[in-house]
Amino acid sequence: MPTDAKLGILVPGSFGGTPPTLAEYSAFFRRAEELGYDSLWVIDRIFHPNSIIDPMALLTVAATVTERVRLGTAVLLFVLRNPALVAKTTATLDYLSGGRVTLGISLGGRDNEFGPLGVDVRRRVSRFNEGLEVMRRLWSERDVTHHGRYYHMDNVNIDPKPVQQPSIPIIIGGSADTALQRAAEHTDGWVAGGAASPEVFAQAWGKVRDFAAAAGKDSDALDSSKLIYTYVDADRDRAKRELESFTHAYYGPQYDAENACAFGRPEDCAAKLQAYIDAGAKTVMVGPTWPDPAQIERISFEVAPLLR
Q: How far apart, in whole angstroms, are the C-alpha atoms of residue 15 and residue 250?
C-alpha cells in the first residue's frame, strides 16, 4: 500500500441473525494475514438485541490461525470488567500470540449494561482509572499489593506475563475532551468510532496531540485510529443497503451510513479512507459486514493501491 498509514480490519462481530461459524472466521483471519493487513480489531457489547461474539474469544481464534497480524480490541468495555481478569486474559493472549495484542478500552457501555454488572455509572471514571493502574501493575510486577476504592489485593501475581513489557499497548476510545485527554496523558493512543467525519476526527486528534504536548509527552509517538465500515461494489445503492442493514441493526436507524461509511466503487471507497488518513489517522480499520474473504480481497487489491 503506497500510504504510510496502516490498514486494519474491524472484524464483523454483531449480527441481527445467525452469526458466522468458526470455520468462516478462521478462513477470514487466514486470508487477512495472507493479504498483508496490519491488524484485526474486535468490538464489545455485553447486552444487545443482536448476537455479539465475545471479543476475547474471537481474538483467541484469530491468534490460533495467524502468526503476524496484530490483535486488538476497538474497544473493550473495560469499566464493566474486573481489571485483574482483563489483565489475566490479555496477558495470556499476548503470551500465546507472541506479543501481538493491542488493548483498546473505554468507559463503555450502554445504560442497561452497568446495573446488571454491579457498576455504578456515576463512579465509572474513578473505577476506570483505578482499574487501569491495577492491570498495568499485574502485567509488569510481582507480589502486587493494592488497596484502593474498588479493588483490594495482597501479594498477588499473574503469570505468564505479557511478552510486551512493561505494558501491552493501550489505546482509548471516546470523543469527549476528557477521553481525549486521558488517551493523551495515560495511554499509547486514541481510536475514533464509526460516526466521526474527517473534519471531526482531525479536530479531536489535534486535541489529543495538544493534551500530550501539555503533559510533556511526544505526541508523534501516539497512535491514532479510525474505524470505518466499508463495502466495495460497483452498484453503489446495493453497497449502501448492505451497510445500512448491518449498521442499523447495531447502532439503530439513526446511524448515518451515507456519510459515515465508505461504499461503492473502489475509487469512492479510497477517497473516503484517504480523507481520514489526511486528517491524521495512522491506522484505518475497514469494517466489512461479514467475514467474507472476497470483500477484504477487493479492498486490498482495488482500494488500497489508490491510497497515497
A: 8
Cβ neighbours of residue 236 under 8 Å, at least 6 residues apart? 263, 264, 265, 268
Q: Do residues 190 and 171 touch, judged by C-beta distance below 8 A?
A: yes
Residue with cell 487501569: 132
* Strands 14-15 and 262-264, sheet pairing: unpaired
**Structure confidence at residue 109 (pLDDT):** 86
Q: What is the pTM of this model?
A: 0.97
Neighbours of 122 (CB within 10 A): 9
Strands 70-73 and 39-42 turn out to be parallel
Each residue of 70-122: pLDDT tens digit?
999 999 999 999 999 999 999 999 999 999 999 999 998 899 999 999 999 99
Q: Model confidence at 148, in pLDDT bands (50, 70, 90)?
A: very high
Asked whether the beta carbons of 242 and 167 are under 8 A apart, the reply is no
Helix or strand run (H / E) with residue 201? helix 198-214
Asked if residues 179 and 107 have their Cβ atoms less than 8 Å apart, the reply is: yes
Q: Which residues contact 123 (CB under 8 A, 6 or more apart)?
A: 150
